[in-house]
Amino acid sequence: MSRGVRDLRDLICVSRLTFHESEDDDAFAESRPQLRKELSSVSLSSLSTDSKTPRNPLSARVTSPDSGFATNGSPSASGLSLVNSSDSTKDEGDGVFITSTSVPDSPVQQVPTTAHATFVKSTKKKKRKKSGLSVEPTRHELPGPSPLPPVETIAGTGILREEELAEAKPSYERVQSARNGKSKTRVNFDDMLTYMDATIVAGWLTRANDAIQEVTAFCAKGDNFVQFAHFWLSSFPDLQKKDIFSMEYDFLIEELKLAFAVGRENRAVVRGDLTQLCSAVFKEYPTKVLGAKGPHIFLDYLDILSSDKHVEYKKLLSDVRCATTNRQYAQWLLAVRSFALVSVWFSVINFYRNLVGSGAKQGMPILGLCSSQESVPNRRMLQAIRLGYIDVIHYLLLNGHVSSTFSDSHRKTWVFMAVMHNQPAVLKYLLTKVHPSIDVNQAADTGNTALHAAANSGKLPLVEMLCECESIDVNCVNLQCENATPLHLSIMHGHEEIVACLLKHGADSSLKMGETSVTALARDFNHTEILEMLNKS
């Protein structure tokens, strides 16, 4: 199969997306109420009423510019009034700080002095209140705490660098949360696609096409697909699968950063926007590919990407969770989907190739099983049986790639093939785990059944498994060989243990092969031990 760049470009069509009017993406400015306290008149007499310190009629309470605490009789005070009603205020916590230093007109008489600050004594006696420590605002700002050390990126966590902390929440999510107070699954990316670099997208398509060609050639050679499937299903731990997918996902984010470099420079596109775009176009990660069915899903996608299943191929590469009214944006979204899938799958295959090396032993491809569309899956099934890979057999049967009732051009069933290749574990799986069950009594074009083949090969475990099958006919005959039964074949080859097993499971010793009885057959081949066994039965 050959696919060119044009195949991927033809795939990128807007007809595979749903179009609807995009929501207004204008951000709403958040309005924060600011506390404004009006100070009509503040004088020395009003500021000093809540102090626990007894009043001293000879001195005034002023604030030291060095310590920030109130002192008595400071020579630096130039007047009686410390604050006034015209001062502008700012709130910090529950306190109100006065920023202006202008002195308004006041009915209180101010007498300048060089030695002591004078004050106006209130004529009304005020009752002293019992309150906590009175804290007056300082005239100068005190030194603040030292800044915290810069935030470093911690591997395996969601902690960002200091310059990326502002990007923790994507712009679109900020708009949506301001609009309705809750986050939604994002499907429209028009606001960020305006910053996408078209030349980088074109390069992605070229790279994806080259990767598809390599993956297709790899899977078509020998039993590479079956060998990789066995590695992926059984030999490669789930934890390492998680690591390799996480690494490829990070690489994909880096590719998107390059494509949206202009938007990232002016903070119009942040990391949260990129992760949301990845979730929309590469929705298989992490839920599907890391779930219980993840290994089977990965192999299904690999089969589609490397086969002639054009309908499934186009459907797979166009399965995005996005909506747009812009034709160009739709093509870019499909291009991102194609590049994401192909690059991740190609990277995993390339990792396996580097792991096993170029000199990996390969089995010969088995051709000519059938000419139907299932020829490739059936060939892989036969390769898996020959290699004894039950995990691959289970994957092919469970996902419907092959049928349990299949028989090849020689009328050989999967059970017959397991017997031929001496795979008792595979035979046990096929006899006990497969539904609908396989016809164990079906004869091949030679007239032999699976039990005939097992008795003829002398493999006792195979004969025992077949004899224990409920639907087995131990007296099945080969019409092309004078009605020979498995017992006749085992006597001819001198397999004593198999003869005993067949007799134990009800083999009829009175049946003849043509005109020859079982005892005569044992005598003719000079199998005295078997002859004695037959005489005792």
Automatic annotation (TrEMBL):
Annotated ANK repeat ranges: 446-466, 482-514
Disordered: annotated segments: 23-151
PANTHER family hit by this protein: PROTEIN FAM220A (PTHR31980:SF1)
Annotated SMART domains: ANK
Keyword vocabulary terms for this entry: ANK repeat
Boundaries of every SIPAR domain copy: 6-342
Bias (Basic residues) ranges: 122-131
Protein name: Caskin-1
